[in-house]
Amino acid sequence: MFVFVCAGCGAELTAPLSQVALPVHAHQKYGNGIQLPVLMEPGTFAVEPEPWGPPWRKGEEIDPDEAAARGIHAPVHALSYGASGAVVIAPGDTRGTLLLPEEHSGSCCGLDGSDGPNMACEACGLPVATRIDDCSLWQAVWLAPDAVRRHRVDGAETAPLSWAELMEEGKSTPPFEPIATWGGRLGLDHYWSWSPQWEAAAGRALAHLLAASAGRPVTVPDGLTAEVFRRALDTLLPAGPPARRAALVGPGRHAPDTNADVDILLVPVHPQTGESWAPAGATPAYLVPLPFGVWLQLAFPEPHLPAPASGVMPDDVLRDDPPAPRSPYLFRADPEVFRHTLVRLPAARSPWLREILENLTPYLRAGLF
User: Fold this and answer.
1) What pLDDT, in 10s, does the model give residues 89-114?
2) Residue 176 in contact with residue 64, Cβ under 8 Å?
3) Residue 190's beta-bridge partner residues?
4) 306: Cβ–Cβ under 8 A, 6 or more apart, which residues?
5) What is the pTM of this model?
6) Integer Cα distance of 74 and 145 in angstroms
7) For the chain, how long is the longest CA-to-CA vector?
8) 53, 62, 71, 314, 341 from 66: Cα distances, Å
């Protein structure tokens, strides 16, 4: 575990924190006027390896070779030229900081962080972090990498959970959740919809599925996996050529027989280390990453009784709790997470993928994203 201290005076700025993987939805902007919750769990931090935050440069101002050197393989609207290594924590884990209220321009219902650091060290006044709590953004505090230092906490070593331990915990991410709004529709302050985390996870996974397809159709398992991916894959990929098959594989769910002609594996990402699960031995299949909680829900969906049980409930009978409400809308992958992921994959140099990236607007209007 670590605490972060001010680079100027050494004052402690956080509670003791353990490192976890950066959530795929860390920079997601969801809807309009939506009240998103806190991004990070208490007592954790994650690191953004890429440059993040201002200053920004427009895509047309960036030489293609310069972009390629940063791992960008297709045109982008803009790139950050801020420092890499920003650390994100829950707002409640900050210590010894003061808000700079004058650094808030561009915000709507809160702070959006567009002006850079808006929090200072209470002891010396050095700007050290950016708080974000505006509508449609995940609430978080981003520590500026050039203004803080990481100190290890003695005697607080913790090893990451094994895949078996993660499976035993069984912490899945529900596909549907109540979305809180500022002045909701029909007088309500929330409505049930697809989880923003699922939309972000699908945006990243869909980019990988297209890259793995090599321009051929891709089939996915029936059920919730098909509900999330099939409409987009059938729309974005051509019909006709022999299809590539994708399967859900991971801990407790064995890889299909090699004779089954499975080309793509949908696998979980370890929530602490950020490493993708991989089958033992070498595999020619393309590994598509999914957040562990999303993958667990897809791989082991929770069953529900077709009818309520009556009388005393035996041990081997499921409770008759009604399932959570479903969204009335078709699933949409997050377009910005999709774009962010795809331009960083070498496959994005392919003309057919470039065409998809350059023509996302019609797909947005069609409700695909």
Assistant:
1) 999 999 999 999 876 666 778 888 88
2) no
3) 180
4) none
5) 0.90
6) 28
7) 71
8) 18, 7, 9, 65, 18
Question: Whose CA is closest to 216, among 283, 294, 286?
Answer: 286
Phi, psi (degrees; rounded to nearest 5) at 298: -70, -40
Six token digits for residue 156: 């607080």
C-beta neighbour count of 32 within 10 angstroms: 10
Whole-angstrom distance, CA of residue 358 vs CA of residue 339? 10
Alpha carbon 60 to chain centroid, angstroms: 27
In the chain, where do the E strands start and end? 2-6, 18-19, 34-35, 44-48, 56-58, 78-80, 86-89, 97-99, 119-121, 127-132, 140-143, 148-152, 176-181, 190-194, 218-219, 244-248, 262-269, 286-291
Strands 218-219 and 244-248: parallel
Amino acid found at 63:
D
263-275 in b/e burial notation, b at 16+ Cβ within 10 A?
A: bbbbbbbbbbebe
Residue 183, burial from CB neighbour count under 10 angstroms (0-12, 13-18, 19+): exposed
What's the rounded Cα separation, in Å, for the pair 103 and 119?
9
Give the pair of three-digit tokens for residue 182: 């500022």
Confidence of residue 301 (pLDDT cuts 50, 70, 90): confident
Instruction: Please give the DSSP secondary-structure letter assigned to residue 82.
Output: S
* pLDDT at residue 180, as a whole number: 87
**Which residues fall within 8 angstroms of residue 110, CB to CB, at 6 or more apart?**
132, 133, 134, 135, 137
Print burial letters for 35-50: b (CB count within 10 Å at least 16), e (below 16). bbebbbeebbbbbbeb
List alpha helices for 184-334, DSSP H. Answer: 196-213, 224-236, 292-299
Please tell me the predicted confidence (pLDDT) of residue 255: 67
Centre a 10 Å sphere on the Cβ of residue 299 and count the other Cβ atoms it contains.
22
If one counts every other C-beta atom within 10 angstroms of the C-beta of residue 326, the result is 11
**Tokens at residue 348, please?**
């994005």
3-state SS class at 364: helix
Give tens-digit pLDDT for 324-358.
Answer: 677 788 999 999 999 999 999 999 999 999 999 99
Whether pLDDT at 305 is above 50: no
Which single residue is written with the structure tokens 């596909």? 175
